[in-house]
Specification:
alpha+beta, 270 residues, 17% strand
Amino acid sequence: MKRFICIFIIILSVISCGSGASNFSQSNSAVTQSLEEKEENTDLSASDSLERKLIVTVDIRINSKDVEKSYKSIEEKIKEYNGYFDNIESSKNRYYLTVRIPKENLYSFINFVEETENIENKNINTQDVTDTYYDSENRIKNREVLLEKLRNYLREARSIDEILKVEDRINTLTYEIETMKGNFENLKSSIDYSKITLNISNREAMKSNTNIYNKYLNLISFLKEFFSGILFFLVGFTAAAIPIVLILALFYYICFGKIGLIKKLYRKIK
């Protein structure tokens, strides 16, 4: 009798554990599906009331008689406005700069450049990324909620198989969140710090240098053609002279050389 009762208790325990694991799996799937559906159906209908998120890029071309002075002036103003250089390229009579300026100081910086430099061309481009910004923000929050739920379920898991499945989902979700956060930070940086491209050059000096350079190239081209002509003439002359020299040598050999036909004829006449 006792043996029968023990077997009965074991069977009930197995059924209970199986049911619990099944309920756990179903509950986990339901929460995952619910949160992911919420993520896909994020409501941005009220985006008009949200702060607009704009990426502003500016391209400015400057003609300066003193590019070093212009560069130093702009460098000081960038520091004053808490900006920084992304890239600096320089050559004689030219600077090519890529800088980042906080969005709140952008137009003050542009006004400064317009007042102090001779601007040849200016282009301002604005990209509205409001929907992308808030959609990314909400997706990250929803996935973080899902991650927390999965961690809670992991503590309640009753089988090795269930633990492995939940841990695999947690690892995948953690990687997705980190990637999304990295992309989101790049987006925020592009919004908070506007990109400005500055092309500073001394047009007159560059034009003068270009003319001198062109004259130099023309001289080199002339010398190349001159010496090429001489070389061509020498090669042609040599190619034409060799047969003549050979013919003359053969004639001399036959008439005056070892054969000496002329010599023999002269002796007979004599």
